[in-house]
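Appendix B, example 12.
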Amino acid sequence: MLPKEVIQKIRRIQITTSRLVTDFLSGQYESVFKGRGMEFDEVREYQPGDEIRSIDWNVTARMGRPFIKKYIEERQLTVMILLDASASSYFGTTRCLKSELAAEVSAVLAYAAVKHNDRVGLIIFTDKIEKFIPPRKGQQHVLRVIREAIYFKPKSKGTDIEGALKYLDSVTTRRAVTFIISDFFAKDFKRSLSVANKRHDCVAITITDPREMELPKAGIVELTDAETGSFFQVDTSSAKIRRIYSERANRKIEERSRTFGSIGVDHIDVRTDVPYLEELIKFFKMRKRRI
């Protein structure tokens, strides 16, 4: 039985996100994703005017006359949400934790999918696969996705994006629109994300808190790495320390963006101190212009 406050939270997110999808994102989602996929239908004999590049050379060689592959537009998409639940996501210094923001963004994407009769699935991961919800349609299914995104308690603390992407391939038999929601401060995910992006339409959604970018002037504070448990003291009254911290943080952010750009993965940057809707709309508009 879920606690009353969790049920209320799920209900609030359900109402908020369904409203956002209806009012702002429904048309954007349809224009960017729906009708973009093509699936194989049949092989038929070549007819004058057919595209030469559609010829199925194997069948043509076997039959002794030209045949082409015929495709039809995919009417139903599979949307997969990969949600990072590592210990670093349970951090936040403004209006919410990174994990809470990630759960709400997951809900928006799930509602957008089912509103257009698409299937949506969820993979919650740390340094192992914590939870898998197979893709399905319907409002009840979306509520389950939201509930797990909000309430699920992971057993592990680390981050393994590569392992999550390999698991995605093991449970999907067709191309999926794949949203990976994480802070992406893990190592060694570039190659696996590049490989996954060749099979799927991958979109990285980065979650950042302002205190990960700059330190406040608060005297001597103790900082703890949520994933490793190591801790150290920092004198935040030092302008030099604050500057070095900020410079290193900005280098990590820039390196993260360069990684996505180098392998052709679109990304959306959302922050705990800024409403995320504008960033989602900006992403959909960018995708629409490119199409």
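DSSP finds eight helices and ten strands in the chain. The mean pLDDT is 88.
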